[in-house]
Write a structure and sequence with these properties.
Shape: globular
Largest sheet: 5 strands, antiparallel
Structural class: alpha+beta
Radius of gyration: 16 Å
Low-confidence stretches: none
CATH topology of the largest domain: Phosphorylase Kinase, domain 1
Mean pLDDT: 76
Order of helices and strands: EEEHEEH
CATH superfamily of the largest domain: Phosphorylase Kinase, domain 1
CATH architecture of the largest domain: 2-Layer Sandwich
Number of domains: 2
Helix content: 25-40%
Number of helices: 2
């Protein structure tokens, strides 16, 4: 995960979630380009945290994503792997920004990463509208 994200560079950070950060990753092989999202759990600064809480959160997510109802669902992220290594807790998911709200963000004047961040913001608005 460190290699995928250029050592979790802020330039690859696409947003936050409740317990950490999300990073963009891209691997280019001759003739193939693969996009990934890396989710890194961190110790929350302003909430009660017990050692092992993030381990449990990751395992709950893995159980959900491996459930038979969701594993082949077209609207769910595809999990590639996860990591428990020297305090690093994270997961790697397939990322297909071109099959999402990403396509609604104007291309002119925006970098690729700025467009991803804008799409995440738009997704938050859509979620809010659905939840009322």
């Amino acid at each position: 995960m460190v290699l995928l994200t250029d050592n979790f560079s802020e330039s690859n950070c696409i947003g936050n979630f409740q317990f950490g950060k999300l990073y963009y990753a891209k691997i280019v092989y001759p003739g193939i380009t693969a996009y990934f999202m890396v989710k890194k759990w961190e110790v929350p600064e302003n909430c009660d945290y017990d050692p092992g809480d993030n381990d449990l959160r990751l395992m709950d997510e893995m159980i959900l994503l491996r459930h038979e109802m969701f594993i082949n669902h077209p609207g769910m992220l595809k999990l590639y792997g996860f990591c428990f290594d020297r305090g690093l807790i994270g997961a790697v998911y397939e990322f297909k920004p071109f099959d999402s709200l990403f396509n609604l963000i104007p291309k002119d004047g925006f970098t690729w990463l700025q467009r991803i961040k804008a799409a995440l913001g738009l997704a938050s608005v859509v979620r809010y509208l659905h939840l009322g």
